[in-house]
Please model this.
Amino acid sequence: MGRIAAIQISSQPDIEQNLSAIAERLADAAAAGAVLALLPEMALTLDGRQYQAIAADSQYPRRLGELAAQHGIWLVAGAVPMPCPDGDPRVRSATLVFNDQGHQIARYDKIHLFDVDVGDAHGSYRESERFAPGDELVVVDTPAGKLGLAICYDLRFPELFHQLRARGADILSLPAAFTYTTGEAHWQVLLRARAIETQCYVLAANQCGWHDDKRQTWGHSQIIDPWGRVLTELGHEPGVALADTDAELLADIRRKMPVMAHKRV
Model:
């Protein structure tokens, strides 16, 4: 399969600053031999006031594709604000997949929107005010294996991941901006559960640190194997988590415990 990377950054209001951080970490991942790298959710910025402008400007997908081509690596660009294909005035939170030539080959629009009261300094999150939900599942062929796409709050809905596995996924990608409060409580246990249930690798890239005076994210980007073992995990600082995927291990786990064949509901 291949070496995969989860890139952890702390996106700030300055998009150019964030693009520089992405480029630096992507270079690190490529230099370490990764064939595929995942960015966190809203890697360009977590400043919601800029989402409409980003969605309206085609330079951002183009520049992300150029970074993938420059470093010869497949890039899963976390979630990027993109126009709604159905004319909804809101934007969509979209994962964009670029191959190592810089061509966009897939897009997944976040299905589950984070409309919750967390109890942190930010307090209330209402993604549906800015974002419209998607409704299509996406699995894409990559050099590291078949990649099932999800975003952040999707993690709490296991049925989505079971459907991705049924469609052939070997790896599940989860770009996120999990809050410090919810991340500390639930991030790793949910990631490990999704890996165990689906018998897939889980590649999870989270935001980290403070993004303004109220919003703090948990970090702890990590890669988990199909048995639920955490292969690598970052802390609260920017960095790159790397791990090798193993096709023989994946096949062995699925052969010895064929849960998909045993499903009855």
